[in-house]
Amino acid sequence: MATIQVTKVKSAIKKPAKQKLTLEALGLKKIGQTVEHEASPAILGMVNKVKHLVSVKEL
Dihedral sign, CA of 28, 53, 40, 22? Predict the structure, then answer.
């Protein structure tokens, strides 16, 4: 499976609780923080829910 790099680029202030929890589940806490995940359907679904707050790069 491919690996993706997810970076938080916007704040989650005034966003719904589900989006905040999704960012936390991805391992993103601070703006500018980057994590790597396998591109599984579950991870891609989470990234899709918060696509306006993160940037995604395929490795």
Answer: positive
DSSP annotation string for 13-52:
TTS-HHHHHHHHHHT--STT-EEEEE--HHHHHHHHHTTT
Q: How far is CA 22 from CA 2, 33, 45, in A?
A: 21, 15, 10
pLDDT in tens, 37-55: 999 999 999 999 999 999 9
Query: What pLDDT was estimated at residue 9?
Result: 98
CB–CB of 55/10 below 8 Å?
A: no
- Does residue 5 contact residue 56 with C-beta atoms inside 8 Å? yes
Ordered by where they begin, the domains of the chain are 3-58 (3.30.1390.20)
